[in-house]
């Protein structure tokens, strides 16, 4: 799976709609402290289903919405759209909505109304989105997304947590979600 485009609207410091194209090869994001580099990585994790406000460096999930500055009012919603090329990979959580190899997942949160997901124009559940990315060996908790301070966490991790990281990397994390699902039925 290859990320091709990322679009942010009202997400953290990205108050105006901002679109980034990610070309094949290495992409670097440079800028002074506090300009929003980490916010970009958090946007990718968030649209992939991150449910922990703490790991988004916030007190609550609505903290991802632009909070306003002395010259700009706060916004009522935040939206992140992630456009990927699935490279023919099976998009299991979305079999009948997948349009060729292209996948666009959008997550939107509104103040007081929680967040909702769309995948290729169709309403989907958080669980569907988590499965899509877990099967592609990426996703909110994937070791492919390394946040600031994360290296130290890996070194200090308990064996069970380290195993979870390896399972994410191997692309089998989705199997646990399905097993839990099957056990509940
Ligand atoms: P560093 O080089 O120090 O790691 P960075 O480029 O990674 O910096 P970020 O941590 O991504 O910077 O950005 C932090 C900025 O985002 C801060 O200026 C903070 O005020 C702003 N910010 C975070 N959440 C919000 C929000 N909800 N509304 C408005 N601004 C926000
Ligand atoms: Mg940073």
UniProtKB/TrEMBL annotation:
ATP binds at residues 32-39. It is found in: Cytoplasm. Signal peptide: none annotated. Belongs to the SMC family. Required for chromosome condensation and partitioning. Contains large globular domains required for ATP hydrolysis at each terminus and a third globular domain forming a flexible hinge near the middle of the molecule. These domains are separated by coiled-coil structures. This is Chromosome partition protein Smc. It comes from Sphingopyxis fribergensis. The lineage of its organism: Bacteria, Pseudomonadati, Pseudomonadota, Alphaproteobacteria, Sphingomonadales. The chain holds residues 1 to 185 of 1147 of the full protein.
